[in-house]
User: What shape does this take?
Amino acid sequence: MTTTGHDSLQTRRSLEVGGRTYEYYSIRAAEEAGLGDMSRLPFSLKVLLENLLRHEDGRSVTTDDINALAGWLKAKKADREITYRPARVLMQDFTGVPAVVDLAAMRDAMVKLGGDPNKINPLAQCDLVIDHSVMVDKFGSASAFRENVELEMERNEERYAFLRWGQKAFNNFRVVPPGTGICHQVNLEYLAQTVWTTKDQNGKDIAYPDTLVGTDSHTTMINGLAVLGWGVGGIEAEAVMLGQPISMLIPEVVGFRLDGKLKEGTTTTDLVLTVTQMLREHGVVGKFVEFYGPGLDQLSLADRATISNMAPEYGATCGFFPIDRETIDFLSFTARNPERVALVESYAKAQGMWRDSETPDPEFTSTLSLDVSTVEPSLAGPKRPQDRVLLSKASSEFVSALPSLAVETTNWTNECRLKALIIA
Amino acid sequence: MPVKGADYSLGNGDVIIAAITSCTNTSNPSVMLAAGLVARNARARGLTVKPWVKTSLAPGSKVVTDYLVKAGLQDDLDALGFNLVGYGCTTCIGNSGPVAEPIANAIAEGELVACSVLSGNRNFEGRVSPNAKANYLASPPLVVAYAIAGSMNIDITKDPIAQDADGKDVYLKDIWPTNQEVTETVRATVDSQMFATQYANVFSGDADWQNIKTAEGQTYAWNPASTYVQHPPYFEGMQKEAGGFSDIKGARILALLGDSVTTDHISPAGAIKADSPAGEYLKSHQVEVKDFNSYGSRRGNHEVMMRGTFANIRLRNELAPGTEGGVTRHMPDGNQVWIFDASMKYQREGVPLVVIAGKEYGTGSSRDWAAKGTRLLGIKAVIAESFERIHRSNLVGMGILPLQFPEGVTRKTLKLDGSEKVSITSIANGISPRMTIPCSITRQDGSIENISLLCRIDTEDEVEYYRHEGILQYVLRNLSA
Assistant: This one.
């Protein structure tokens, strides 16, 4: 359920798709109500704008907040903190366990207060994918998979028994069992819907952009499917789970223009390593990145997801791709509900969130561009993802890096490895 | 360096791990099928991977297996050792598993710079494997190519990567598929039905999962013997109605910290030291040191996590000069003890606690236990020169008062040394966002210094969270009403 606000600007409209009527908060209606022309607002900020329109309650979201976001177009920045309510939460097992522990403790507390424990459930849809506990103990044999799964089950029995209880006990809480996949890929191929629907407090179907926070830094991958999302800490994730907003600064948005297509012998991996290096140099920490330009028509949805995935490596909050024909085709191809796919297209077009080759470029805080056909086969390393090395120079650069690598800079301990795990 | 029991030796630049891993690339059929095509072409020439390379394939969904099998390419990958090892995060997050002991020994003895090549997104030092000092991110087809070449010293764009059965040189270009070939393979093998089938029952799991014995019921039957999952005490003694605000009187300073204290300093990360309070707790629960696991894996047990709070070995508490780690002095006796032990003693004595710090308190990535652990140690307020945005909001979310020194006032200008008592009064009458709050500092000699602090509860919603002693309590009371 979503609790909608006062809607002082009276932007609520209805949209009929496939014989069903959805209510939505119209950016066009807000333009007419005095916000002015929002057509050149970056697509990623349109998602935030809709969120404010839907939740404007004069308290946690005010019309001043809405005006501040609309005013972003003037200076291409807006120094204001807003509250934001993502549609759902994605967790992996390392970070998800404490959140479920807290929910379980809340149920006990509810009983002690004389209330109904069944009232304690995530209010926003919450999905936990168990993907962080499998280790490559066995490899290079037909039985490797089976044996690794068995070891994983043995080592993690206590935590898994607890999560399995949670899977049965809570509403709005789904668990993808171990041995299924990686949370971001499961999100891309199945969980994400691009446009989310739910009932409001009056039982009406509301359609709005699918948005999320995740407890893993690579949650950003889903921005390739035009779903705004990034990684947060456990307390913010719990707050969203429990229907509370998170606070954020209205971000600067860096536009990344893509032209052309990959040349023979190069891959999307080469492209993303190039993009990562360029954005690191540009400086995008705390900012949104949004991709635009004719090169988008040459990128498959999977290619976009690969580029969005590495947002933490280039330092941005997210790397967003807008909804276009490729988004729709991917949703259909991955067997999403056809009614939902139709809604995504209609909603995006009604909201000015649809991109095609005719769409004027949004305005950005700053821009950079890349002719994709100039990308060369690459690696990145030996220590940082932004340190791209041409494949043709990989061996010579390794040799020149060798003296610094050979220096015993850190006494490698188990601690480093475990620490690396925690920040995953 | 010779490798014991093997007919090869290792040197700098040898590739010991080649992993097709991470959602970054395993979500992308074009690069996954390209890896399969490289394997097929290599196999056709009779090539194999070098014996010192640990090969693995860990896709992020079962759809990947479906299309690799349909294309007949999984066989080729298997032939080169890229058998399926699991569906999940592996090498990319450091779950690469051990490399063969003779190889690890040779690397250690020779102090070699061994390499990994992986299709992941991160390669910080020490992340991928303890044995690989140089770690390269690369596309899945290049991961296969480097497994065959076995070394970073070869220029694989020019040098032969291996010799075929006839002793003829094979170059990368000989086994590399064309873009068109990749595109056609994607079109011919990846289909919609694979997604429909694999995700039809995605939440059910296999027999192993379904056979896990678990409690039923609306509330959880906590297992008191578990060292991984325990009932946290946030709601103990909670009343149906929120109490008012209360003043903080006669608080002791648990830690006096400098600038840029990170969430990593505050919240436990990494390995659990055997002689630390968390280590002692685990030992007293019959957990052997080898089974300690990490703080991360024990995030479901507050007993471990609160003992780890402020226990980072690099934390410098100015109350215990010359020490590093989670040490403080308990007052008024001045005994040097673990921060956790001091906290417990203060809590038994009914003494409230504060933390005092410099600029940018709580910087770094958001970590839930940085705020949760602070609360469980009995800390009522954190007074700092400035706060990192997210950690400040997390403190309020856990019912802890963030207060900011006015410009020009710091722990140093106040000459604090931990012998003081700190009182934060006049909040009992209510709090409004960013109000000024008086604070009095009583020194050991009885003299009193009064200062004004800025209340860093920034919004009306946060006032409510604080009044309820935390966001969880706020939501709970709203739902119980």
User: Anything to note?
Assistant: The radius of gyration of chain B is 29 Å. The first strand of chain B starts at residue 15 and ends at 20. Residues 328 and 337 of chain B are 6 Å apart (CA to CA). Chain B touches chain A through 142 residues (CB under 8 Å).
